[in-house]
Write a structure and sequence with these properties.
This protein is mainly beta. It starts with 14 loop residues before the first strand and ends with a strand.
Amino acid sequence: MAEIVRETRLTRGDRVCSQGQPTSAQLYIVADGVIQLWRAPTPNTPEILLRELTAGDSLGNTGLIADSVWEYTAVASQG
């Protein structure tokens, strides 16, 4: 397993993915800290905080099985 796992340390404000960009076959698992998922603003709505991911949560599951685009922007809020 260690051959396919890569640890990445993020600092506050680091972007994991951007809404509308293509996904990749990567699964991200939060080991520590908080990742915020944001939906970009539209002409009629402000930017929306969808969820906060904490230790044990993951993102990128859909990108493992199908080509898609990110439905949100994920940003480290605590590292």
